[in-house]
Amino acid sequence: MSALAVQVQNADRMMTQVRARQGGLEVVFADGRKGLVPFLDIPEVEEYANLAEVSLPNPFEVILRNRQDEVVELPWDFVRHYCDVSYQPRVESIASAGRQALGRRIRQLRETARVTQEELSAAAGVGRVTLVRIETGQQSPRYETLAALAKALGRPLTDLLVDQPTP
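and the corresponding structure tokens:
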């Protein structure tokens, strides 16, 4: 029987090491990915000489303290894209799919209510172009916009956010 390889679930979210270097923070993830987060991309630090302390209190965030005693928290997802070139495109793809699914639900609810885009946008106080962009998945709506659309459709907000089973 051959050996099976097993990796920690969600290892792409867990940082195991962080070290300050002249050019930035060298970070290693549990899945072996590593990279350098440039100090220039951390405005509160900007350069090695302004860094007073680095810590990794848990696998999901790096804590920095600069010489002015300001604390900076770097979450795993901010750091990850410096360590994995495929990370950002994957996240953007997931976000796009979510926007499109939300847009389809809103459009379906609008059509079920037999309301035009013009009528819904007016009732919700949202621009028609904004509604079109939301329905096509080109734009993420703010919470206030979602709440206004739900109210204008006479539906609970959860109906816009969660696929409802068909009867």
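(Above: one complete record from the training split.) Residues 89-161 form a domain with the 434 Repressor (Amino-terminal Domain) fold (CATH 1.10.260.40).
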